[in-house]
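Tokens in:
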């Protein structure tokens, strides 16, 4: 019997959070082995588990997978969340890359100096509301379906919901000008596997706070 995927990362969101989301949305149970000290990270590096000496790392199907995008591609394809053909996969890739760019900006915000945080938050809100969210709003409007690609839940939808919720943590009314995205958020949040992830006590990680920033800087020697 094949065991559950095992995720190796810190106890925070970071680059692993989207992988947690993807597995949870697919209904896949997984285990986590947390990196809590610099010694934990060095142990993984020294025993040859990390192909490029970096995490995230996911043990799945006999592989020790690294590189966030490669891990996401594999999980999405394995659990039928990656479209029916190359064209659908290309659209999913484009949408995922867009939300990854936005989430990257949000992810690094807590690590920035206090005197630049307000300026960077304003930039994130501006980019979200003028560059990213309008694209997804238009896509839903143009094809009239519930989901972004192929009228079927895909990695693109899961990633977009995660991005929306991350943005709302910083600006709760950020979707005020996007009625179709508001409806999309409601629909996708109620998919049973995703609804379970959004409940207290799930493996979803909390927003990054100053205490966790300090832990990460210590582990990765930042």
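Residues out:
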């Amino acid at each position: 019997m094949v065991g559950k995927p095992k995720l190796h990362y810190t106890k925070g969101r970071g680059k692993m959070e989207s992988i947690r989301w993807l597995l949870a949305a697919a209904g896949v149970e997984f285990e986590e082995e947390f990196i809590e000290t610099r010694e934990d990270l060095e142990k993984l590096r020294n025993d040859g588990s990390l192909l490029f000496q970096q995490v995230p790392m996911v043990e799945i199907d006999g592989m020790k997978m690294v590189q966030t995008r490669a891990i996401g591609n594999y999980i999405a394809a394995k659990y039928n969340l990656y479209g029916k053909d190359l064209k659908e996969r290309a659209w999913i890739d484009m949408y995922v890359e867009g939300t990854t760019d936005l989430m990257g900006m949000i992810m690094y915000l807590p690590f920035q100096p206090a005197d630049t945080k307000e300026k960077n938050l304003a930039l994130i809100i501006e980019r979200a509301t003028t560059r990213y969210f309008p694209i997804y709003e238009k896509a839903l409007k143009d094809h009239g379906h519930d989901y972004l690609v192929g009228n079927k839940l895909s990695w693109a939808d899961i990633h977009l919901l995660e991005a929306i919720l991350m943005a709302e943590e910083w600006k709760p009314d950020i979707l005020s000008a996007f009625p179709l995205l508001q409806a999309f958020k409601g629909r996708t949040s109620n998919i049973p596997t995703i609804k379970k992830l959004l409940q207290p006590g799930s493996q979803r990680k909390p927003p990054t706070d100053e205490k966790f920033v300090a832990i990460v800087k210590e582990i990765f020697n930042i």
